[in-house]
Q: What sequence folds into this?
């Protein structure tokens, strides 16, 4: 008996790959599956389409897009009484969540994983009212992500984050905040960057929380305090490679929840989606998702 599948597609204006996906949809239908595709045009579309899939009690929802598309789908699924399995077909700029799950970049192979792979449990985190499934960052990295426009990402791909990162580095200034875990102060003062990770990588392959695991019931917290500019430059290759936890300057902790209170408005992103504020409350949800992996 075939599956009922909701396919949420954010094309990123890649006509060739969307046409390839159209052919794969026809093959799925030929194999006896019911596939309902929906193409997104603006922010919020993926959220609404995922809601329809959940309300119709489909067995599987495939998010074909980047990390932002996956994030919108996740934000709906965690609120739904009926929770279909989630699969990802990487069509975005960074595709960090898909990479963390070792989903193939080849569309046919990714669709095969969606249908024939195994289901695994993946934790979902929340910052204030927004859920995320991959990584949230604040400070330098989040500002670079916010500054990377859709046009720049379409033109440059993952290089867009490097270009905007260089621009932001010229303006680099530390932020000031207090981090608390279970009412206990973890850090208070000036910092350049922090990450709260449910997974290992963000920003197109930067392994900022290298010890994070999708289903371990913990968030990995990394804080880089204010450093002299040259010291921070020296640390950047380690932040990309995931070897920065060896630095005595870097703070690291695993916890199910952390609170961040900034003195001034702070840019934070969740799965690459930017938000601004002074109070950020991170925690793991009690209800994980079932996600298809190889």
A:
């Amino acid at each position: 008996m075939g599956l009922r599948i909701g396919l949420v597609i954010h094309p990123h204006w890649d006509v060739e790959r969307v046409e390839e996906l159209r052919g794969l949809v026809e093959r799925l239908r030929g194999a006896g599956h019911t596939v309902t595709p929906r193409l997104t045009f603006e922010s919020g579309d993926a959220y609404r389409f995922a809601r329809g899939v959940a309300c119709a009690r489909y067995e599987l929802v495939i998010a074909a897009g980047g990390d932002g598309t996956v994030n919108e789908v996740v934000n709906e699924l965690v609120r739904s009484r009926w929770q279909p399995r989630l699969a990802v077909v990487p069509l975005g700029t960074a595709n960090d969540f898909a990479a963390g799950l070792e989903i193939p970049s080849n569309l046919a192979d990714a669709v095969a994983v969606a249908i024939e792979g195994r289901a695994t449990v993946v934790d979902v985190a929340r910052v204030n009212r927004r859920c995320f499934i991959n990584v949230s960052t604040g400070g330098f990295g989040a500002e670079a992500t916010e500054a990377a426009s859709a046009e720049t990402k379409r033109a440059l791909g993952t290089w867009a984050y490097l270009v905007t990162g260089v621009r932001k580095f010229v303006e680099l200034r530390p932020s000031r905040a207090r981090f608390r875990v279970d009412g206990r102060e973890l850090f208070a003062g000036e910092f350049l960057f922090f990450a709260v990770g449910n997974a290992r990588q963000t920003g197109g392959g930067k392994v900022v929380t290298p010890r994070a695991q999708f289903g371990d019931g913990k968030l990995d917290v990394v804080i880089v305090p204010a450093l002299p500019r040259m010291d921070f430059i020296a640390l950047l290759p380690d932040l990309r490679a995931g070897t920065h936890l060896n630095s005595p300057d870097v703070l690291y902790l695993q916890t199910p929840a952390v609170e961040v209170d900034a003195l001034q408005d702070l840019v934070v992103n969740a799965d690459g989606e930017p938000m601004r504020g002074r109070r950020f409350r991170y925690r793991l949800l009690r209800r994980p998702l079932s996600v298809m992996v190889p």
